[in-house]
Amino acid sequence: MKKLLTGNQAFSQGVKLARVRVITAFPITPQTSVVEELAKMCAAGTLQAKFIRVESEHSSMACTAAASMTGVRTFTATSSHGLAYMHEMLHWASGSRLPIVMVNVSRAIGAPWSIWFDQSDSLSQRDTGWLQIYCATNQECLDTVIHAYRLAETILLPVMIVSDGFILSHTVEPVELPTQQDVDAFLRPYVAKYKLDPKDPHVFNILAGPEDFMGMRRISQEDMEGAVTVLKETDTEFQKTFGRSYGLLEAYGLEDAETVMIGLGATCETAKDVVDDLRQKGMKVGLLRVRLFRPFPAEEIKQVLYGTKRVAVIDRAVSIGAGGILSQEIKQALFNTEYMPEVFSFITGLGGVDVTPELLNRIFLQTMEASENPTKGFWMEASS
Questions:
Q1: What angle do CA 101, 102, 106 make, to 5 degrees?
Q2: Which pTM does this prediction carry?
Q3: Which of 19, 45, 119, 240 is surrounded by the most beta carbons within 10 Å?
Q4: Residue 185, preceding bond cis, omega within 30 degrees?
């Protein structure tokens, strides 16, 4: 069955289909309607979950983590400064190996205040030990919630699903709703190996000595890296069940591309039209959408970009003093490879600046002309 849903409504439908049992909620634009939809479902009895209203985002993640320790499937959602306020608890959730799924509807981080979209909030949390998956369509928003629980509960690490604030969250698209039977077949009930239970006592988060602490971090790193294989395997199963597949990366027009644009999220949907237009003019261009940002799929990116001459990275977040965040990851992935293309960072779209087809077209053309530029970094404002 297809319905017209906003991205936020699609997330809520995914949570319902996943049979989540505890939801914590604190409102923040543009995420608020995710938990509003879930509150309506709980009130109507169509979702059998405990809906907990908390006093802050820090409390939201603390509450979600505590509920997860009891062995139930949990969910929360946030944006921007709310995610930043959670920062301490994000580390506790991942360090405790809790399979929480959280949606972050991205929005710029102040100051100055902004309610509009860029990716500075989620990318600033890239070192907290959470998997990060970036969606490009509302269908992907719904599907990724279901897939994320399967992934999180397999490797016992939390998953952050990221969407573009207002671009996806408040825009309506046709979305195929899976049947509950199919979701139940793909996402079996969660049975926690370790949980808080008076009949079988366990302790979470005790003090660890240096050797134990380092060993636990090493295991988390190994399991995070192993998530790449798990995602590939479960994506194959997802396709068999639902007829849709997403993978780690989305390649578009890369067969003979000499110049490739790389980005995260819904901006890449706009870039597809630009690729089509430039290819009709005889230019060998293509697009690579990075869907899985943590763990970063470096080996897969190397393989896909082999033979490419130039790469234009769309950076919708900047690490002040270091440059575009996505381009840093791309350069590190390609460093010291047998054939490394030139990598150009285009910092744009900050604070909600429109990334239009015209702007992306200019970026493609500038990349093809910029091979001699030693800086390989550009700030692209809408009027530039």
A1: 150
A2: 0.97
A3: 119
A4: no
**What is the model's pLDDT at position 204?**
82
Region of poorest pLDDT, from 72-86, 309-323, 330-344: 330-344
**pLDDT for the residue numbered 106:** 98
Alpha carbon of 267 to those of 8, 193, 236, 349: distances in Å?
A: 17, 40, 26, 9
Q: Which residue has the tokens 């993978």?
A: 247
2-242 CATH: 3.40.50.970
Tens of pLDDT, residue by residue over 126-163, are 999 999 999 999 999 999 999 999 999 999 999 999 99
What number of other Cβ atoms are within 10 A of residue 59's Cβ? 17
Q: Do 261 and 310 form a contact (C-beta atoms < 8 A)?
A: no
> Per DSSP, which regions of 113-216 are E strands?
131-134, 159-164, 172-176
Contact 252, 278 (CB under 8 A): no
Q: Which residues contact residue 269 at a Cβ distance below 8 angstroms, ignoring those fewer than 6 apart?
A: 136, 137
Helix (H) or strand (E) holding 343: strand 342-347
CATH 3.40.50.920 location in the chain:
249-379
Decide: helix, strand or coil at residue 223: helix
